[in-house]
Write a structure and sequence with these properties.
The complex is a heterodimer. By secondary structure, chain A is mostly beta strands. Chain A is about 10% helix and about 40% strand. Chain B is an alpha+beta fold. Classes of the chains: A mainly beta, B alpha+beta. Chains A and B meet through strand 1, helix 1 and helix 5 of A and helix 1 and strand 1 of B.
Chain lengths: ~400, ~80
């Protein structure tokens, strides 16, 4: 009997898994795939400052996002003392979300506030206008209707940076969307999950109680609750020849937060950690947490002078004369006030024309952020937080 | 109406393509391009293994080579191995 031998297909290394080169067909993938949104096993919140909570994501399809929803209760018992929240409340009760895929750690490594800010930057049509929250002043706080970065369907329980919180029980409902893919439209940066070669994990680190609450006397504060985990993935269809069909997964999405306390009342030039050839910068942003209340410095002319980004010896492609100028540019770009309240200053290279604007780190070396803190600002235990959002080649690890 | 799905390079200007790793089936292509030198079987003099074996055999006296040259009244002789 005559037999035929099927020729071996050239293989490509796709995020650590070997797949036939012919399987990569974005056009056919988009035509045939199905969006999957499913419930993962929920996990009990381990407690503030406690050991890290750990989530394992099922190996299904092409993973593009994971939505984590926290449903909890904040119980405050004054015992004759006082309780106030810091500026890190509520979203930075998660000090870090850390996502790892196939041994590539720290693809995502950022705190809750930065994850919230990034979601608004990316979507463009998502904004916090007309959502009332309490920020600053005596609890429930000064009522603001813009700049909180929150969703109407969230509940902070108590305000941000508010004093004189009454004893009682408060419902806390927060939602975070971890952007595994850089963009949900073309799945750039999505992760090939459906392979035994992959382990997909999310670690959730929590801030200690002292970072979120300022107390006098001996009140007790307890935050309890649970996380529901909702991954979004896309099914891997079969092609006409019976093989799998995959989208362009040549890159991974990296979103990494770093910080430094070495800033002063002058022009600060902060070199970004984890740069390398082949990495493409989508965005970079920063904010400064300051003082005992840990409130962010508002992005305005009182707090910031020149803000810019720089590379090479002294190339400064974009410079804004004050924090306010950058805040205005950001509001215009994102349709949301990112800096007036929560202090974010953003250099975005994606939203208008990514092909034109994104920064190739092979050509623009020694990237730095430039932030001038005005002389009138009293710096006390400042923390300059900055985030880089990159696309990195699939076989290369994320930024440090 | 057709619509082409852009790649990461189309959308974001990334320069790197997926890393190409040759499969076993494509290895001979590399050999033909001179990237891999085929040394032949170990018993052929073009193989380094042939010469290594010969050296070992001489060292341990398994084989020997002797020669003698006469030029007029002069005579020279040499011997390697037993």
């Amino acid at each position: 009997m005559a037999t035929t031998t099927r020729a071996a297909q050239p293989q490509v290394n796709l995020q650590g898994a070997m797949v036939p080169q012919s399987a990569i067909n974005p056009q056919l993938f988009m035509a045939l795939t199905r969006r999957l949104s499913f419930q993962n096993k929920s996990i009990t919140f381990g407690g503030l400052g406690a050991a890290t909570d750990f989530v394992e994501i099922p190996k299904v399809g092409i993973l593009s996002a994971v939505t984590l929803q926290f449903d909890g209760t904040l119980t405050v018992t004054l015992n004759g003392g006082t309780v106030a929240t810091t500026g890190l409340w509520p979203y930075d009760f998660v000090s870090r979300f850390r996502f790892a895929a196939n041994g590539l750690t720290n693809l995502i490594n950022a705190s809750g506030w930065h994850i919230k800010a990034r979601e608004i930057m990316q979507r463009g049509d998502l904004n916090d206008r007309a959502i009332t929250r309490g920020v600053g002043g005596a609890s429930p706080g000064t009522q603001i209707t813009s700049g909180s970065l929150s969703l109407a369907n969230e509940n902070w329980g108590v305000g941000q940076g508010v004093t004189a919180i009454a004893g009682g029980t408060y419902a806390v409902q927060l939602s975070f969307k971890l952007p595994i893919a850089h963009d949900d439209v073309y799945l750039t940066g999505a992760v090939l999950a459906q392979t035994s070669a992959t382990d997909l994990t999310i670690n959730i680190d929590y801030a200690p109680l002292a970072n979120l609450f300022i107390t006098t006397g001996s009140p007790t504060i307890a935050l309890t609750g649970a996380w529901s985990v909702q991954p979004t993935a896309y099914s891997i269809p079969s092609g006409p020849d019976g093989g799998v069909v995959l989208p362009d997964l040549s890159h991974l999405h990296s979103l990494v937060q770093s910080q430094t306390s070495s800033i002063q009342n002058a022009e600060n030039e902060i070199r970004l950690a984890g740069q390398g050839v082949g990495r493409q910068t989508m965005r970079m942003w920063f904010r400064t947490i300051n003082g005992a209340t840990r409130m962010p410095l508002a992005m305005n002319a009182t707090n910031y002078g020149n803000v810019a980004w720089r590379y090479g010896s002294n190339d400064t492609p974009e410079v804004y004369p004050s924090g306010r100028s950058l805040a205005v540019a950001n509001e215009r770009m994102f349709g949301n006030d990112m800096g007036g309240l929560e202090g974010f200053g953003i250099f975005d290279f994606v939203n208008e024309n990514a092909f034109r604007d994104t920064v190739d780190q092979g050509a623009a070396t020694e990237l730095r952020l430039v932030a001038t803190i005005q002389s009138g600002v009293t710096l006390s235990n400042p923390q300059f937080e900055y985030v880089q959002e990159l696309l990195v080649p699939g076989a290369v690890s994320a930024a440090a | 109406m057709s619509f082409t799905i852009p790649t990461a390079a189309d959308l974001y200007g990334t320069r790197s393509a997926p890393a190409y790793v040759p499969s076993a089936a494509s290895a001979p292509e590399f050999a033909r391009q001179g990237r891999v030198i085929n040394p032949g079987p170990p018993w052929h003099p073009s193989s380094p293994l042939f010469w290594m074996g010969a050296l070992i055999a001489l060292t341990f006296g398994l084989i020997g080579v002797a020669t003698e040259v006469h030029v007029g009244p002069l005579r020279a002789a040499g011997k390697v191995g037993s």
